[in-house]
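TOKENISED FOLD:
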Amino acid sequence: MNVLAHHGLHDLEDEWWNAYGQTTYISSWKLPFTAPYTNLNGSPNSLIPERERSFTWSATLFLGAKLWAGGEAYFVPEVIALRPLSNLHGLSGTIQNFELQKGGSETPQLYRARLYLRQTIGFGGAPLKLDSQPMQLGATVDSRRLVIWAGNFSVLDVIDKNGVTGDPRQTFFNMAFMTHGAFDFMADARGYTYGAAVELYWDDWAVRFVHAAPPQNPNQLEIDFRFWKYFGDQLEIEHRHTLFGLPGAVRLLGYRNRVFSGSFDDAVAAFEADPARNAAACTDFNYGSTNATAPDLCWVRKDNVKLGIGIALEQFVARDIGLFLRVMYADGQSEVVAFNAPDRSLSLGAVARGGLWDRPFDVTGIGLGLSWISASHARYLALGGVDGFIGDGALRQATEGVFEVFYSFNLFKAIWLAGDVQLIWNPANNADRGGPVLVLGAKVHAEF
């Protein structure tokens, strides 16, 4: 778009259309670690202790068009190919590559990621310039405005947009830093859903609400379109501020999911009342456990409500250095439906841009991510149960954590090469298999 604008063929400040693209390849190498047991008694969700390599490759095209005054349409096709560590099992909130949220296989798969309408209604205030970028037409809008979304999109297109960590393709590799680890936002196995959203901007304040559809079964591709029966509601309140002349923000986020899911306590009670209702015997949707001595969520799925609340802080402490913190607490009574396994999560860190050392397009960062599970969740796992991601067959409950350092080197214009080191401890919240696990990563990212 910049090339067209440079030749006078496109107006970046008042766009009728735009087109952007990206491609990202991430490779991860997990070094061996020691563990006293793996997949005990047929519970299948351990991180295997042997050396492994994982990769993802994605390519995305972002197309936007203005339909009428304030009305826009966006279409985003995407290709993904991937190989996870241990079949995407054994890590609770510290999955080493954020792109693994997009379920797939080693064979590239083309799909529609997004197709939605967005309407902006101005209420006055100061004029605010929106830069041309993927899924945003260059325009001038009111600082007081209402924005309405409808269609196929990601909840994270609207909620928890962090100005410090930014696009994860440019910063941290680990999923712990993509959003709140305990945020079970509605999505299919690729991270997208159908629904509607409303954003109200009022100068330094913003309120956002998303009503979105869940998958038919936890972390699967098929969406349940019965919006009136099963849904996730997400509400975020944001205040943007300046501190010593530098920008920052505070966001309070709450969610309420009404979904068809299994309760940990119900699964344990059903098994204790009748051992025939075990993981190996259930034929409804299940996670493939063959442990006949363990409870299973498969037996007890019904209409359940899941609640969570979190806070996110971001603050620049210099022009090119930003700090961030996310904390979330979910009730932890029922299984994850659309994201990761944790019931409580915390992440914090710092990101620095290379202007400090005359490399203005380089990025580096350091982060700590922690994940916890509830007492009910832990009891279920200790008895050999599994959820969508974790379950070693036994459990000595502990905090799962990751420490990550990355550096992204700008090779040429819009091409970056990044290196990454992650140290993960107590995978699957299990001190018996505490590791630590060392994961090395490399990423090539290009934008066009």
